[in-house]
Amino acid sequence: MPIPVTILGATGLVGQVFCERLSGHPLFKIAALVAGPESAGIPYGEAVQWRRPGPVPAEVAALSIAAAPERLSTPIAFSALSPEASARLEAPYADAGAWIFTNASTHRMDPDVPLVVPEINGDHLPRALNQGRTGAIVANPNCTTVGLALALAPLQRRFGLQGTRVVSLQARSGAGLQAGQLMELTDDLIPHITGEAQKIALELPKILGQWEPNAPPTPAAVEVTATCMRVPVPHGHTLCVDITLENAATERELHEAWTSFEGLSGAATLHSAPRPLIHVDSDPDAPRPAAHRDRGEGLAVSVGGLTRLDASRRRWSFVTLSHNLIRGAAGGAILTAEDAHRRGLLDD
Ligand SMILES: NC(=O)c1ccc[n+]([C@@H]2O[C@H](COP(=O)([O-])OP(=O)(O)OC[C@H]3O[C@@H](n4cnc5c(N)ncnc54)[C@H](OP(=O)(O)O)[C@@H]3O)[C@@H](O)[C@H]2O)c1
Fold first, then answer.
1. Which CATH fold would you assign to the domain 143-322?
2. 295 FRET partner, CA 20 to 30 A, in 93, 133, 208, 234?
3. Cross-sheet strand order for the sheet of 3-8
4. For the residues 302-324, what does the mean pLDDT come to?
5. Exposed, middle or buried: residue 227 (CB in 10 Å: 0-12, 13-18, 19+)?
6. Over pLDDT 90: what percentage of the chain?
7. At 253, which helix (H) or strand (E)?
8. Which helix (H) or strand (E) holds 289?
9. In degrees, to the nearest 5, what angle opens at C-alpha 114 toward C-alphas 96 and 98?
């Protein structure tokens, strides 16, 4: 029997992808939709400004939207709430017994909140049981950090990673519907996204770090600097990445590390897991958002443009691309919930 779930922030861009991808899901069934008070009582299909390809899924079109309740009626919620609403609502819901899989940044750096990319650190999930709550909060990383972490993890595991410098070219949809005018960005770019570089610098070491049972989390010792820009691309974040490895690698070894990477044991068997997880492009014109962001139904990552930066074979640059709304948000959170289910964490 699928487990009933609530989608918090169901009318926003990330909430729409939750509706799309949870419709017909074998483990989870959409039972309730929550959005701001002005949509309360209105059928989802009438209230939502639908921005996804295809029609509003039949499973949700006639469901009435609720304003945020005092207590959730389902044991699990997927959250696509704005940061303000997340800060007010998620912890009380988790205290009252729900498992909240959230995309908001509010709790990402809380010490006992796992910040999960299942293939890299799904083994951090059991730490959610240490939160002292009846339920738990599990966070998805920032949409830029997710793709970066997936491109770097295979190299970190194989060669060691000393540091990385990133320039991000982030899609319009990364700003959400509430950012209004950014959704219309054309013939221009925004050269600085407030707070984004700091999020990447904090979140990446947490994801790539160690988290043993009964021990404090140890972030990976990786130096991270970033410059983050908004560009007039509808969906898909492209990152220009320079890395310094601890040990020398050849181009062939780097390719092999990426193409053979399936992540932690069992991650590749999850219902939504993409195969392959990482696509390596040798065409100099790839990866590109319009052509490649939907690989693996939006859950795969692409890398290309691999270039050696010096004779040591420790310094390289490459380009990576991932879908911000799918791998970087709703699709990633659903994959994480599938992993929590596989690990028996959602049994009660
Ligand atoms: N867009 C991305 O690529 C992306 C990627 C990763 C993470 N995130 C994070 O995910 C979250 C959602 O992002 P988004 O792009 O989907 O934003 P969005 O389009 O602006 O949607 C925000 C959602 O929150 C709801 N909301 C706001 N205040 C509420 C309240 N008081 N009670 C109940 N619901 C409320 C909104 O409902 P109303 O429309 O009714 O106000 C809407 O459904 C944000 O925290 C964002 O930082 C976004």
1. Dihydrodipicolinate Reductase; domain 2 (3.30.360)
2. 208
3. 65-66, 28-34, 3-8, 76-79, 99-102, 136-139
4. 98
5. middle
6. 94
7. helix 251-259
8. helix 289-292
9. 20
What top-level class would CATH report for the domain 3-140+330-342? Answer: alpha beta
Ligand 1 mean position to 340 CA, how many Å?
23
pLDDT at 179 over 80: no
| 143 a catalytic residue | yes
- Cα(48) to centroid of ligand 1, in Å? 12
pLDDT value at position 138? 98
Active-site hit among 143, 228, 323, 341: 143
The confidence score (pLDDT) of residue 184 equals 78
Name the residue ranges covered by the structural domains of the chain. Answer: 3-140+330-342, 143-322
**Helix 196-208 vs helix 143-159: crossing angle, to nearest 10:** 40
* pLDDT-based confidence at residue 217 (cuts at 50, 70, 90): confident
Q: How many CB atoms lie within 10 A of CB 189?
A: 12
* Residue of the CA atom closest to atom 25 of ligand 1: 9
